TrEMBL record:
The keyword Hydrolase applies. It comes from Pseudooceanicola lipolyticus. This is Alpha/beta hydrolase. Residues 317-341 are annotated as: Disordered. InterPro entries: AB_hydrolase_1 (IPR000073), AB_hydrolase_fold (IPR029058), AB_hydrolase_sf (IPR050266). The keyword Hydrolase applies. Residues 319-333 have a biased composition (Pro residues). Residues 64-308 form the AB hydrolase-1 domain. Keywords: Hydrolase.
Length: 341
């Protein structure tokens, strides 16, 4: 056997051992993640997957649906926003299709209209009629897709730091998700991605929360540990790649938006541009509000402001009260029966 062939075999064996170790390490981290953040609610099957959700409040209260962003899970809203709304609303918090403990059977179902369809089917299955829907970040884009496709079944939309437009480049913290091959997406997801995500978590969170500090319990109470699973990488990558094709088709439909709503942004958001994704939507009838000095992770860093924003949007969606009828005038020929003038 030649020296070159021997070296090649040694290299292949070393690579096999490395990938084997990464695969086992990934499985171990995924088990730890699910033990740290176990399934919190119920799962409802829909065509193409299933939706995991938790519920707060009274069943007969007005419904509010909360939808998280990319590479996230429902705990971003259960962290504080959902409990704050539970006295007034029936609050349904979901894992988007493929995220958390929800399921998505194919990468193509990451397209905005497909996510909207799956969530709409879930709401129909639960008998949720005319909810106010609030979405954060990519969840805002999905919320807009629902409003465009189901205007008669949506009371109002509350968009928190939403993605509404295409932008020239992907934010650095999401660049690693830009994998276009489904095969490579899964190979990377089951080997390199999870150990790399664990190693870079501090830097990624610092950027996502900037200029504010990451929550100390973000990995546990906010469920971020669930990001240390192959499924999270595969879903996030599919979301990012499919967004490129779906967003331009959605943008050209905004002039047909009929559902009332508004947008809330932090003035110091480092992930999405408030001008591009927020103020630009005022031309389509959405209100626009800002939180001075806040960043992108508003459901975690400013839950009271988010809850108040959702309340304002819900109030705006209420039908106007019927005008009171004026008292009837007595007939002109009715005899006077009053007291002295």
């Amino acid at each position: 056997m030649s020296i070159v062939l021997t070296l090649l075999l040694v290299l292949l064996l070393a690579l096999a051992l490395l990938f084997g170790w990464l695969f086992l390490r990934t499985r171990s981290l995924a088990r730890e993640a699910e033990a740290t953040v176990p399934q919190a609610g119920q799962v409802v099957p829909v065509e193409g997957g299933a939706i995991h959700y938790v519920e707060y409040g009274k069943p007969d209260a007005p419904p509010v649906v909360l939808i998280h962003g990319i590479s996230a899970q429902l705990q971003h809203f259960t962290y504080a926003v959902a409990p704050l709304l539970s006295e007034e609303f029936r609050v349904i918090v979901i894992d988007r299709p493929g995220c958390g403990y929800s399921r998505r059977d194919r990468d193509e179902l990451a397209a905005l209209p497909e996510q909207a369809r799956m969530i709409g089917e879930f709401l129909d299955n639960l008998g949720i009629e005319k909810p106010v829907i609030a979405g954060h970040s990519l969840g805002g884009a999905v919320t807009l897709a629902i409003a465009l496709d189901r205007p008669d079944k949506t009371a109002a939309i509350a968009l928190i730091a939403p993605a509404t437009q295409m932008q020239d480049k992907v934010d650095p913290i999401f660049k690693g998700l830009e994998i276009r091959s489904p095969f490579m997406r899964r190979l990377i997801g089951h080997t390199i991605a999870v150990p790399a995500a664990k190693a870079s978590a501090a830097q990624v969170l610092a950027h996502a929360f900037a200029p504010e500090s990451p929550a100390a319990d973000f990995m546990t109470r906010a469920g971020a540990a669930l990001g240390l699973r192959p499924k999270a990488f595969i879903t996030g990558s599919s979301d990012l790649v499919m967004l490129e094709g779906a967003m331009p088709k959605q943008v050209v439909r905004y002039d047909k938006l009929k559902v009332k709503g508004g947008i809330l942004y932090g003035t110091e958001d480092k992930v999405l541009s408030a001008d591009l994704h927020g103020r630009s939507m005022m031309r389509y009838g959405l209100s626009y509000d800002e939180l001075e000095g806040r960043g992108h992770m508003l459901p975690i860093t400013a839950p009271e402001d988010c809850a108040n924003f959702i309340r304002r949007i819900a109030e705006r969606a209420k039908p106007p009260a019927p005008a009171a009828e004026p008292p009837a005038e007595p007939p002109a020929d009715m005899p006077y029966t009053g007291g002295e003038a």
